Structure formats: C-alpha cells, structure tokens
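Appendix B. Chain record.
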Amino acid sequence: MTRPRFNRILLKLSGEALMGQGQFGIDPDAVAGLAGEIASAKGQGHELCLVVGGGNIFRGMAAAAKGFDRATADYMGMLATVMNALALQMALEKIGVDTRVLSAIPMASVSEPYIRRRALRHLEKGRIVLFAAGTGNPYFTTDSAAALRALEIRADIILKATKVDGIYSADPILDTTAERYNEITYRQVLERGLKVMDASAISLCMDNNLPIVVFNMLESGNIRRVVLGESGVGTKVG
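Structure tokens predicted for this chain:
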C-alpha cells in the first residue's frame, strides 16, 4: 500500500552522507550526487527543508569523551553543520535550485538567522531551507534539532536518511538474524533501545504525533521514492 503523500517534508541527513568514500571531510562528488537526488525530490512539488549533521567534520560527544568541555565541543559540532549546509547550498544552486541557509547561531556573513516565520516564508516561495547549527544549544543532537524544526514549521513528516534500508531489531551488519520492521511505534523504539534517533527526538515526535520514515540514502533514487510515499521503502515510525 502506498503511503500518504506529504506536502511539507523535513529531510534529516547525517554528515557522513557528504564525505563519500572518504573517512573525513566533504567530497564534492558526493555532495553533487546528493544535491541531484534532493533536487529530483523537490521537483515533485513538495516543500522541502533539511537538517544535516556535522559528524564528517567534528563530533561533539566524541570530543567530550576525550576531555573536551562538552558545551564547547557541541558548539564546534554546530559550526561543522554550518559548513555542510553551505556545501549543500552551493551544490543545489549550481543545478538551479533556490535555497536558503538558516543558522541557529547568528552568522550574518554566510547565512540568515533562524527565524521561524522567515523559514515558513521561504518554504512558501518554493525554496529549499537548510537548517544549520542544530538548536543553537549544547547538549542537543541534530536529531533533536530535526524534530524541533519539523514541529515549528508544521512539517508533515521527518525522513531520516541512513546507511541501512530501515529499522532492525539489532544491527544488521553484526547480526544477520536481525528482523527488519516495516512499521514500528515510537514507544517500541524507546522500549527496545533501537538506535533510530535519540530518545529526546523520538519523545518529541511521539508527543506531537509526527511520523518518521527511516530509509537508505545510499540507494540511488531513494530520496525521491520515499518523498513520493512509495511502499517498501524504509521503516515508518508512528
């Protein structure tokens, strides 16, 4: 059965999506390919916004575990997300897609400040909005930022792009007997400790009945398929 068509969509990308086959940084070819996939999805007439992580450049929690002050490390991670958002903006605009980067940390020289009503206006004008710098606060992940922004702009769904084709009962790379779910509830995700999004993000979505679809971003055309609501693509959390 085809899933309902959603109009306003928030796409959550990991920073690793931008580093291609490398182990670190931003790969121009990977970014260009990703931009093409996003543009194809946008071409279906949806209002589309993105939250991108910064793990390809800097991970705040990993740095904190090695002795960094946690708040400082998280701010550094937020800056990495701004770099990724700018890279995606450049790639999208090269292929004719109008975009705006809105940062939770004011950076007037490179982005607009995040203002909810401004974000809504950009979406209404058909622009892709890239939300950068997380929530602007330490101790919150980009998963939580994605849930928060999606609710603020009244998105119909969060699409979380990952390296696997959905949610499993265990890590399918480590456990070949892991069961893949087509659908699962928020409470089951929390109770089973499944690593979909962090618990704060899942709880926020559950409290506000905001659905999530987890899907494989590495398969060509999947972003477009999941945006169109094709059946069999990813796992729905709701």
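Further analysis of this model is presented in Appendix C.
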